């Protein structure tokens, strides 16, 4: 087994832990933001309903800012106020409501999990974090801990991006914060710190601190309720680690939690020396030709053809303008030809490459793809028979387009 890290990286003094919990909770009671899921979790007497509300919010908040989530969350809860209601929804409805929020598999898995609770678990949510994680699709360790602590009062910690930042600073953890060794230590720490009588509030307080005070670039250390427990701040103010018994060992014998010897503390960064991450992989570049086919509908309004993507993979099940991935370095003339061939399948008639009008390019960054859409348009006359043997397709007005399950990238294209 690896040697335990030096004491400066841990919380081992019960009096300090107690003081930190008290300070953090008192600050949270006074300063927390009013958020709809918090209000619901605090006022809803039924624990399973609370759990559903927390679950929906936590899934939406993965990878998405609070300000963006609020509107989606409110509309979602209005449409499907209970797990049972969500279990009866269609995937199309879920995708429509989720449109624009990104990472679409989240909504799909939320709905699958709701169906599973209703059909296999007698409509009752698992109550312990371990069971939530084991039994519900899309529920990872963090979400399980959040639901179990906030809704069911289980004294279990949570570790998300905000908690990682706060804990790494509190304990000067400068090793790669995405490495399994560091993540394991942070979970141990979160489980040891969580307040036994108010676990849900404590976890939310730690995350709230990371979101509003201990922020990535310019943390507000002067206003921080746990500043007296913060090793990073002490180091910034006094220029050296806190005087704890075995601090001399730290860093000398290859401490698993200290910054690597090749990247020591940088005094110009202060507390933002922590956390540190291995360099992110650059997103891969991809180009896709997409064509806005338009016609005059029977009421004279312009209509656009949209087609449905496959039910797995990126943007699964969402609708888009007919699109075609392009090989790197393909010349414009060739692009037109391959796109014209592709469109022929949708329109059921020959499409002249020269008739395609190049509109411009739209760039959209997915988490791992730097996607450039090369946008063409093509007006069509007469009736176009859509082939039911192909993927589902339909004509929509602009208003219908915006109400459909289309990605933000396609809205930019339009
Ligand atoms: Fe973060 Fe500063 Fe508070 Fe330390 S004192 S936890 S760095 S805000």
UniProtKB/TrEMBL annotation:
GO terms for cellular component: mitochondrion; nucleus. Binds 1 [4Fe-4S] cluster. It catalyses: Hydrolyzes free adenine bases from 7,8-dihydro-8-oxoguanine:adenine mismatched double-stranded DNA, leaving an apurinic site. It is an enzyme of class 3 (hydrolase). It is found in: Mitochondrion; Nucleus. The keyword Cell membrane does not apply. SMART domains: ENDO3c, FES. This is Adenine DNA glycosylase. The gene is Mutyh.
């Amino acid at each position: 087994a690896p040697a335990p890290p030096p004491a400066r990286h841990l919380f081992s003094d019960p009096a300090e832990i107690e003081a930190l919990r008290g300070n953090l909770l008192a600050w949270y009671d006074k300063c927390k933001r009013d958020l709809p899921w918090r209000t619901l979790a605090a006022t809803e007497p039924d624990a399973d309903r609370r759990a559903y509300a927390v679950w929906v919010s936590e899934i939406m908040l993965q990878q998405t800012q609070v300000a963006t989530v609020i509107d989606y969350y409110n509309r979602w809860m209005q449409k499907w106020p209970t797990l049972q209601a969500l279990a009866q929804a269609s995937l199309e409805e879920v995708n429509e409501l989720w449109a624009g929020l990104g990472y679409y598999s989240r909504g799909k898995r939320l709905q699958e999990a709701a169906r599973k609770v209703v059909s296999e678990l007698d409509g009752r949510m698992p109550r312990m974090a371990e069971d939530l994680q084991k039994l519900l699709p899309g529920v990872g360790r963090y979400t399980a801990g959040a639901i179990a602590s906030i809704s069911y009062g289980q004294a279990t910690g949570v570790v998300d991006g905000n908690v990682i930042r706060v804990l790494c600073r509190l304990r000067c953890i400068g090793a790669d914060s995405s490495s399994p060794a560091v993540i394991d230590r942070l979970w141990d720490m979160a489980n040891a710190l969580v307040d036994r009588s108010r676990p849900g509030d404590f976890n939310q307080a730690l995350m709230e601190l990371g979101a509003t005070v201990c922020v990535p670039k310019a943390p507000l250390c002067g206003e921080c309720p746990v500043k007296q427990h913060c090793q990073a701040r002490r180091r910034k103010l006094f220029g050296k680690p806190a005087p704890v018994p075995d601090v001399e060992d730290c860093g000398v014998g290859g401490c698993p939690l200290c910054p690597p010897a090749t990247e020591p503390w940088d005094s110009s960064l202060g507390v933002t020396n922590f956390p540190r991450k291995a360099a992110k992989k650059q997103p891969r570049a991809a180009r896709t030709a997409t064509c806005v086919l338009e016609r005059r509908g029977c009421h004279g309004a312009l209509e656009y053809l949209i087609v449905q993507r496959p039910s797995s993979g990126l943007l699964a099940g969402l609708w888009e303008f007919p699109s075609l991935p392009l090989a790197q370095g393909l010349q414009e003339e060739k692009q037109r030809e391959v796109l014209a061939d592709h469109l022929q399948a949708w329109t059921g008639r020959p499409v002249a490459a020269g008739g395609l009008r190049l509109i411009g390019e739209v760039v959209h960054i997915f988490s791992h793809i730097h996607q450039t859409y090369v946008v063409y348009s093509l007006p069509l006359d007469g009736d176009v028979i859509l082939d039911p043997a192909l993927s589902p397709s339909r004509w929509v007005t602009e208003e219908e387009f915006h109400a459909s399950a289309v990605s933000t990238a396609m809205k930019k294209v339009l």
